[in-house]
Specification:
This protein is of the alpha+beta class and 376 residues long. It is built from 11 helices and 5 strands; from the N terminus they run H-H-H-H-H-H-H-H-H-E-H-E-E-H-E-E. Helix 7 runs antiparallel to helix 8. About 2% of the residues have low confidence.
């Protein structure tokens, strides 16, 4: 069943329970002692409202707690000797929602107010009023309702934690398997490309020693082999970084910017907002996004300047890397490279979103927003 369907089913179930409680309260009132005239009409109305209010106990548990308590005090003062069943349901719902402190305070107030309401009805003396209040709201019933709500709240919390743990374990195993495959593929490709590079360099060296013209294809193979070796070496360092080196984060972004400047790129860094304590995964992901983006700018963008902005907000962290290069052609959407796919996977795994594409004013921009659950 879909989440929407389950929600509709819960609402219908809550409405049915509310109607049943209201009907039970009215039947009890009719079959027992009751006042006459306007007080009777008022009492019946309060009984019906108190029961029907339970339909909203999931959405507004504290409001329902207040309404059912007020209605119970009202119909007791009007002269109806009916147990405060609706209030017990409201106590269960409020405790289940995690509002224990407010519920305890409201219940203490109810225990004190019910005898006063019985005295106001004018039909009982003090002793009878106290006995009637105990009959309407037994402390044992009150404790049982609160205990049931707390037990179910704890069970739901444990179930949520177990589900979250299963998802984290599955995601970690998937990441470990992808990392293992990537390393094996890298090691295999490194060996084969190294052989190609060495053979091409030997052939170029021999041709030049003989005074022969080196074929353009051979020079292209030599250059491609060197570039492939450099990229694979950088990939291997990135893959092994999580295992053999301290984790990189926002504090290391300035080093990336300085390194980009050494390569001739006019790179600038701007950090806004109060960073505070960030989850380690968010910290590492920001570093990787900036690292991959600046690498792409240096290799492919043909840009002269790049700007890195990190905006630390209360509930999210935004990072953007923009350059002034020619960007991508607007007529066609290019296929994303492995670096962009890797960034997107990291961001998506943390529940964030990433966009990358040409800017209207020229250049290319990578922007990511990562949700942040700060530690108290």
């Amino acid at each position: 069943m879909t989440e929407a369907g389950a929600g509709v089913r819960r609402r219908y179930g809550d409405a049915a329970i509310a109607a049943g409680v209201a009907a039970a309260l009215l039947v009890t009132a009719v079959s027992g002692p009751r006042p006459a005239g306007a007080l009777a009409v008022l009492g019946y109305g309060l009984l019906a409202v108190g029961g029907l209010a339970l339909a909203a106990r999931r959405r507004a548990p504290l409001v329902v707690l207040a309404v059912t308590g007020a209605c119970a005090i009202g119909y007791q003062a009007a002269g109806f000797d009916v147990p405060v069943v609706a209030y017990l349901f409201a106590v269960y719902a409020a405790v289940r929602a995690g509002r224990r402190g407010v519920t305890v305070a409201a219940s203490v107030l109810m225990l004190a107010a019910l005898p006063v309401a019985a005295l106001l009805s004018g039909a009982y003396d003090t002793g009878e009023a106290l006995a009637r209040a105990r009959g309407a709201l037994e402390i044992a019933w009150l404790v049982a309702a609160g205990a049931a709500g707390e037990a179910l709240r704890q069970a739901e919390r444990r179930a949520d934690e177990a589900e979250r743990t299963r998802e984290e374990v599955a995601r970690r195993r998937a990441d470990e398997e992808r990392l293992r495959i990537a390393r094996e593929l890298h090691d295999s490709l490194t060996h084969q490309i190294s052989v190609i590079k060495v053979q091409a360099e030997v052939a170029v060296h021999v041709a030049r020693r003989r005074g022969e013209e080196v074929p353009a294809a051979l020079l292209a193979i030599q250059a491609a082999g060197r570039e492939a070796s450099r990229e694979l070496r950088a990939t291997l360092e990135a893959l092994r970084d999580d295992d053999t080196a301290p984790p990189r984060g926002i504090d290391d972004v300035r080093e990336l910017v300085e390194r980009a400047r050494e390569l001739g790129l006019d790179a600038r860094l701007s950090v806004e907002g109060r960073r505070g304590d960030l989850p380690a995964a968010v910290d590492r992901t920001v570093y990787r996004i900036v690292q991959e983006s600046l690498t792409n700018v240096a290799r492919h963008a043909g840009a002269g300047a790049a700007t890195v902005r990190i905006d630390c907000r209360p509930e999210a962290l935004a990072v953007s890397v923009e350059d002034d290069g020619p960007g991508m052609p607007s007529a066609g959407s290019p296929s994303p490279g492995l670096g962009l796919l890797g960034m997107r996977e990291r961001v998506t795994a943390l529940g964030g979103r990433l966009t990358a594409g040409p800017r209207a004013q020229g250049g290319f921009a990578v922007r990511a927003e990562l949700p942040v659950e700060r530690t108290p």
